[in-house]
Structure formats: structure tokens, C-alpha cells
Amino acid sequence: MKDLTPRREDLEPIEIASRDEIAALQLDRMKWSLRHAYDNVPFYKDSFDKAGVHPDDLHSLDDLRKFPFTVKQDLRDNYPFGMFAVPREQIARVHASSGTTGQPTVVGYTKRDLDTWAGVVARCLRASGLRPGDVLHNAYGYGLFTGGLGIHAGAEKLGLTVVPVSGGMTPRQVRLIEDFQAKGITVTPSYMLSILDEYRAQGFDPRESPLEVGVFGAEPWTNAMRKEVEDAFDMHAVDIYGLSEVIGPGVANECVETKDGLHVWEDHFYPEIVNPETGEPVADGELGELVFTSLTKEAFPIIRYRTRDLTRLLPGTARTMRRMEKVTGRSDDMIILRGVNVFPTQIEEQLLTVPTLAPHFQIELTRKGRMDHMIVHVEATTGAASEHAREASARQLASRIKSVVGITAEIRAAEPGKVARSQGKAVRVVDNRPRD
Ligand code: DLL
Fold it and tell me: Is the pLDDT of residue 338 over 90?
């Protein structure tokens, strides 16, 4: 793999400013953001008033803990435009969640917000090792999802040549990467695996591909998956994080030179970690739920938003801004199987230790008698596809899961190509338990 470390003089000064400088900027901006939300969004006025706090009560960054949380339901209750802090005419763009599980949620951006967003995404792509003039193959979905258009604008801002391919039509993805000589790819890690399969199906050696770096996010993935993809393509794999409510992709990103967690762009997004049960903030280094407050957003200020993502905050390394550890699970993805908490990423990690199984998987929850039962659907690699070999692989995986994760799972190892493929965010858990 090539050394893609950016030159220090190419970074924005704030990325490597002193902690004092960052904190001073954050405090100024936080005061502005709280006031802006309170003065312009009735929801925030009510919620601050109910909690007995006022933007003037913020004297230090620590005072933020006095302010109430915002949760996804608040966005649903104010559907579609009730959370906007500027007149609708000043909204330059909206994005929305798919709303497959209920009311969709809508977010909005002013022209300046779009510029801020492009700026942080450009910072992410530079941290990932991309330079002006490089070709970027952007396979995140374009549309209401923030992935495609969010990355697109940041890539243009950095001066990349963007290929706006979006998700799907996998054979064409391979062809365009090769024909246009893409140096970077932005895509969900699960869809990257489908692209890897397609490379092999077309008889290309992925290690000979022009790709030097992949910027993967929008869903949890593990360091074991990083190694799998880095080895397969002989390229760097770095993690990008974000959520629509906070801005979209570009809230935090790994640096290619360290790959040791994601630097949060703290000059725009103020992170806290809280105990998910009590809501009490915990110290840096401790695991809990990530909470964000936007510091500069005009159209859609968000105050103490509960992401449900579980991680911890760590001191800066390649940049002075703090890092968040790779998000390995959301509180609502957690499966509680006979009293044991399990995240799909723990299954992913074990799956990747069995070389005769492909990295694709889906977890099905069912019921056996009165007990919850977990079936992990996996598939064999082409060299180990016989029934006998598949049974042996399944036994091996079941025993790894039992000994490392501590649960009993039924493994169904199918022939190659049988597990549902993702073209965007993977659906890792299918819950077929009867409702009672
Ligand atoms: O997924 C934004 C995005 C697009 C991020 C492209 C990165 C790349 P939402 O659809 O609102 O936004 O989903 C946000 O996805 O709360 C996490 O649970 C999950 N997520 C996003 N990035 C990561 C990541 C986009 N790097 C939700 N690791 C978040 C783990 C991630 N989970």
C-alpha cells in the first residue's frame, strides 16, 4: 500500500490547532447555536423552558449538560419542516430518512450549510489520502440519502474528479473503476464486498485495480473487515462517520496515516458520551452513547442529539481534535439472546476468522419453543462449496461464536452467492420472531 499521508501544510489550521484554541472556538459557537435554536425553533424554546434553562446559562462547555436532549421522535413530531430555524425559502436543500419504520425524518440546509458540509467532507477525503486531481468513484446512493450528494460536494470542493455512479449495477461499477482509473472509492463496506465478488467474477485481480483507498461508512464494520478489504484490494480502508440529523457524512473520519479511530470535526460538531440509561455524561475514554450538538448549522441546528451509536471519545493523535472509537453497534441493533448482548459486528469478526466462508452474512432471529433462536446465514467460498466442506465450516463458526461471543447460534452455510447482497446499507438482522 502506498503512503498517502497528507502534507501538513495542506491541512486546515484548525485541524492541528491547540486544544485551548479549539475549546475557545467551540464555546463561542455553542453560545450562538443554542441561542439560534431557542430564538427560531419553537420546539427548542419549549424544551429549554420546560427544563428551566436558557441559552444565557451557558458559560462553559460543561454547562451544556444542563440542556435537554433531542431524540429522533422529536424530529418525527415536527415533520416535515418544524425543526427548521430559517424561513423555508432559505432552505437550499432537504434530505430525508427512508422512513421504512414509520414517519420519515427531514433535515434541511441553507446555502451556507451546504458549504460547511462540503468543507468537512473535503477534510475527510483529504485525511483519507486523496489529493486534488485524483479520480473518486462515489458509489454511495444519490437521492434523499445524504451519502451520495454529501460526498459528491465535498469531493468537488477538494478538487477531485468525481464519478457519480451511485449504488447498484455492480458489473458497471467494476468496469468504470478500471476504465476511469479511480484512485479512491466511497461506498458502504458491505457493498464493497459485492464489488469485490464482481471483480473476481469478471476475472480481474482486485490487487491490480487502480484503487488506493476506500472511504467506508454509513454502517458498522470491524477492523477484521478492514483487513479483509485491504488485503483483497491492496489498498487502504478508512472509516467515515456521520448522520443526517447532524449533517450527513463528514462528522468524523479516520486519518490514513494512523487508522486509529475517527477524528471528530469538533469545530462544527460538539461530541459528548452519555450513559445510555441515565443520560449522565461520562468521562472521555468511557464507553456510552454518542450525543452531538451542532455549532455552526443555520437551517437545522441540533442540540444534544442522541445518536444511539455506542463508542468512546479518545484524545487526538494525527490531529488535535478528539477521536471517537470505531462505532461497533447501535443501541437499537443490539440483540439480547437469552440474556447475552450481541452486536452483528461481533458475528462479523468471528466469520472473518473462518477462511472457507465468504464475508457476507445475515442474522435471522426466530423462536424455538419459548426460546429466542439465532440463525446466521453465511455462504461458502468457491473452493469450499461441497456439502461436507460447508458443514465443517458451519461447525467451525458455531464453535468460534460460542467460545468468543458466548452464545449458541445455528449456522447455515449455503453455496456461494446465496446470501442477500447489499447495494447500500446492509440489513444485518431479520427478526422473524412471532409477535406475542
Ligand atoms: O449514513 C451518513 C453517511 C453516509 C455516513 C455515508 C458515512 C458515509 P444516516 O443514513 O442518517 O446517515 O445514518 C446514520 O448510520 O447513526 C450510524 O448508526 C450509522 N453509521 C454511519 N456511519 C457509520 C460508521 C449516514 N462509519 C447512522 N460506522 C449513524 C458505524 C455508521 N456506523
Answer: no
Place of cell 456461494: 416
* pLDDT digits 0-9 by tens, 265-309: 999 999 999 999 999 999 999 999 999 999 999 999 999 999 999
Residue recorded with cell 443554542: 34
Q: How many CB atoms neighbour CB 157 within 10 A?
A: 18
Question: Pocket of ligand 1, candidates 309, 326, 345, 348: which has the most ligand atoms within 8 Å of its Cβ, to mutate?
Answer: 309
Helix (H/G/I), strand (E/B), else coil: 134: coil
Question: How far apart are the CA of 13 and the centre of ligand 1, in A?
Answer: 27
What is the distance between the alpha carbons of residues 334 and 386, in angstroms, rounded to a whole number?
A: 33
pLDDT at 103: 82
**Cα–Cα distance between 369 and 201 in angstroms, integer?**
42
C-alpha 309 to ligand 1 mean position (Å): 9
Give the position of cell 473487515.
225
C-alpha cell at 202: 469478471
Please give the distance, rounded to the nearest whole angstrom, from the Cα atom of residue 103 to the centre of ligand 1.
19
What average pLDDT does the segment 402-418 reach? 96
pLDDT tier at 436 (50, 70, 90 boundaries)? low
Instruction: Report the 10 Å Cβ neighbour count for 76.
Output: 15
Distance 248 CA to ligand 1 centre (A): 8
- What is the DSSP pairing of strand 236-243 with strand 357-368? unpaired
Contact 90, 299 (CB under 8 A): yes
Model confidence over 149-171: pLDDT tens digits?
999 999 999 999 999 999 999 99
Atom 6 of ligand 1, nearest CA residue: 147
Task: Return the residue matching grid coordinates 451542532.
Answer: 294
